[in-house]
Design goal:
The chain is an alpha/beta fold. It has helices at 4-15, 27-32, 39-48, 60-69, 92-101, 115-119, 130-136, 148-157, 178-187, 201-204, 213-222, 236-243, 265-274, 283-299; strands at residues 17-22, 35-37, 53-57, 74-76, 105-110, 123-125, 141-145, 162-165, 192-195, 209-210, 227-231, 248-251. A 4-stranded parallel sheet has the order 2-1-3-4, with helices on both faces. Strands 6-5-7-8 form a 4-stranded parallel sheet, sandwiched between helices. Helix 2 (27-32) links the parallel strand 1 (17-22) and strand 2. Helix 4 packs across helix 14. The longest helix has 17 residues, at 283-299. The structure holds 1,3-dihydroxyacetonephosphate and iron/sulfur cluster. 1,3-dihydroxyacetonephosphate (13P) binds at residues 38-39, 112, 126-127, 170, 196, 198, 212-213. Iron/sulfur cluster is lined by residues 59, 84-86, 112, 170-173, 198, 233, 257, 259-260.
């Protein structure tokens, strides 16, 4: 009898489908994927694939972005409830108010956001290109939505701009405290601390390196250190340990991203088989949101 993995492989071929997975989904789903990466890499892969169907092992905004970039393709999410809490933590109304208040304003939207928020934004960013893109914008005032922690990090890196923070946050990364990190540092005094910019400023201050999931993985590969404390969702530990068997990794995260963990191998199989749950974005929203995503892909090159 066919194993689930074999079934997935067969269905991918039959349907000319590609399986994209984020580093936070369960290990066995990452193993079955054609491409695993951070949000920027996955959006590029979604844009350039010639598959007829994209199965996105990730949360809603990821599937939505893939559909916005590929209106002609079937895009399916293995779990329709897998969502990113932060994606909803900004309002179109507030964006409109800011546009009235500031003349020279760019609205910069973290890709972890709903399609609706993208429609009122000038450009999207991910954690790996936010600093580069904000620096390249001609505007002096930047309203950065929805993540307040990433906004604060960008403000520190690009001091010449006036960055207006929104109050959204990732419940997973925001929950890490400086106390917990200091305790872990005492337990592992030789370890370097690598964190995601969705963590709070007090945690970022203690870090040896700040970057996206892919950047954390690349940093750990080339670093001379042998031990690392990891301040991002524990799903990255799979890739970190696989590609660095001689190094040690310890998570400082008090919780995982439950939505990413909803994406199981069985659901990936079912999504391929039954072509569910299809992502739909109405055309007016799609066209406007695509502008912000395309601008990101152009400026991040
Ligand atoms: P990356 O783009 O760094 O993979 O981050 C995605 C995310 O959801 C972080 O919480
Ligand atoms: Fe959203 Fe946080 Fe989960 Fe990333 S880890 S998908 S930002 S809730």
């Amino acid at each position: 009898m066919e194993s689930i993995k074999e079934e997935i492989e067969r269905l991918k071929k039959e349907k000319n489908a590609v399986l994209l997975a984020h580093y936070y989904v369960p290990q066995e789903v990452q193993e079955a994927a054609d491409y695993v990466g951070d949000s920027y890499y996955l959006s590029k892969m979604a844009k350039q694939t010639d598959a007829d169907m994209i199965v996105f092992a990730g949360v809603a905004f990821m599937g939505e972005s893939a559909k916005i970039l590929n209106p002609g393709k079937k895009v399916v999410l293995p779990d329709e409830k897998a969502d990113c809490a932060m994606a909803h933590m900004a309002s179109v109304e507030k964006v409109k108010q800011m546009r009235k208040k500031y003349e020279d304003l760019a609205v910069v939207c973290y890709i972890n956001s709903t399609a609706e928020l993208k429609t009122v934004s000038d450009v999207c960013v991910t954690s790996s290109n936010a600093v580069k893109i904000v620096s390249a914008l001609p505007n002096q005032n930047i309203f950065f939505i929805p993540d307040g922690n990433l906004a604060a990090y960008v403000a520190e890196q690009v001091p010449e701009k006036h960055i207006i923070r929104n109050e959204g946050y990732c419940p997973v990364h925001d929950a890490v405290t400086a106390d917990a990190v200091n305790k872990a540092k005492k337990e592992h005094p030789k370890a370097q601390l690598l964190v995601h910019p969705e963590c709070t400023g007090e945690v970022l201050e203690l870090a040896d390196f700040v970057g996206s999931t892919s950047e954390i993985i690349s940093y750990a590969k080339q670093a001379e250190a042998r031990e690392f404390l990891i301040g991002t969702e524990e799903g990255v530990l799979y890739e970190l340990r696989k590609s660095n068997p001689q190094k040690k990794f310890y998570s400082v995260m008090p919780q995982c991203c439950r939505d990413m963990k909803l994406v199981t191998l069985e659901k990936v199989r079912d999504s391929l088989k039954e072509e569910k749950y299809q992502v739909e974005v109405d055309e007016e929203t799609r066209v406007l949101a695509q502008k912000a995503l395309d601008k990101m892909l152009e400026l991040a090159k």
